[in-house]
Amino acid sequence: MATLLMCPPTHYRIEYEINPWMSRLRGTEASLAEAQWRHLRDVLAGPCEAALELIEPRPGLPDLVFTANAGLIVGRRVVLSRFRFPVRSGEEPVFREWFAAHGFKVVELPEDVFFEGAGDALFCGEHLFCGYHFRSEIRSHDLIARLLGRRILSLQLTDPRFYHLDTCFCPLKAGQAMYYPAAFDDYGRRVLTANIDDLIEVTEPDALQFGCNAVCVDDQVVLPAGCTQLVGELCGRGYRVHPVNLSEYLKSGGAAKCLTLRLD
Ligand code: ARG
């Protein structure tokens, strides 16, 4: 059974601007954000049959809702994130404490090495793909590969709108994934095509609706509403697709996947 970590959006809002989607002039509507988050949670717990764990929201940490950035889970170990922007680094002790209290062995990188967890590190079958440039640093990949004793396939991100790997790449079943090609350089595209048999190309309009920021649990895919072409591609491959309106989270540069962290 899939287990996902989420954080209720009690203190979620746009308090600062650290990616091109965020503007303090375009605030979120708290009650709508709350309803959209509950809808996402209910689809994950209902049709997707995922078990959910919740971390308590904290005032002053509006982006704590994006639990994908807590760390990278490998078995019962977690490589804790080191956030690039100080406005998010207050989340580190909160996540550290939660993982320790829930039986995870917390592994930490040196203090000056940026790494933003499952936002930039995704397993596709046995392959571990890690993004770098806007948030995580490439030197984190080397350290993590050594810590975990496994190979990492590094991918440079080239478009600031797709600043985390999970905004432009989404593993599905083993050997299958979707990606937005223009968010990578030639080398990155080659690494992906060489290592994944069935790579679904996401169109620019769907990518801008955060279509790659989807949660896949077995044959169910939960993605932000409005990704018309992608829904067809996924249904054609036998997935059950659940679009959820996440407009208030797109304003912060996040969607379904960022709001969850797979713990199993
Ligand atoms: N506002 C957050 C940030 O810029 C959004 C994080 C989205 N998380 C993700 N895994 N893509 O850090």
Fold blueprint:
Elements: E1 3-6, H1 30-45, E2 51-54, E3 71-74, E4 77-80, H2 86-89, H3 91-101, E5 105-107, E6 121-124, E7 127-132, H4 138-148, E8 153-156, E9 169-171, E10 176-179, H5 186-195, E11 198-201, H6 204-208, E12 215-217, E13 220-224, H7 228-236, E14 240-244, H8 247-250, E15 261-262
Parallel strand pairs: 1-2, 4-5, 7-8, 10-11, 13-14
Antiparallel strand pairs: 1-15, 3-4, 6-7, 9-10, 12-13
This protein binds arginine.
Description:
- The chain is globular.
- The strands form five sheets. A three-stranded mixed sheet has the order 2-1-15, with helices on one face. It has a three-stranded mixed sheet with strand order 3-4-5, with helices on both faces. A three-stranded mixed sheet has the order 6-7-8, with helices on one face.
- It has helices spanning 30-45, 86-89, 91-101, 138-148, 186-195, 204-208, 228-236, 247-250, and strands at 3-6, 51-54, 71-74, 77-80, 105-107, 121-124, 127-132, 153-156, 169-171, 176-179, 198-201, 215-217, 220-224, 240-244, 261-262.
- With 264 residues, the chain is an alpha/beta fold.
- 27% of the residues lie in helices and 22% in strands.
- It is built from eight helices and 15 strands.
- It has a single domain (3-262), classed as 5-stranded Propeller (L-arginine/glycine Amidinotransferase, Chain A).
- The termini are close together.
- A hairpin with a 2-residue loop joins strand 3 (71-74) and strand 4 (77-80).
- The site of arginine has 16 residues, from loops.
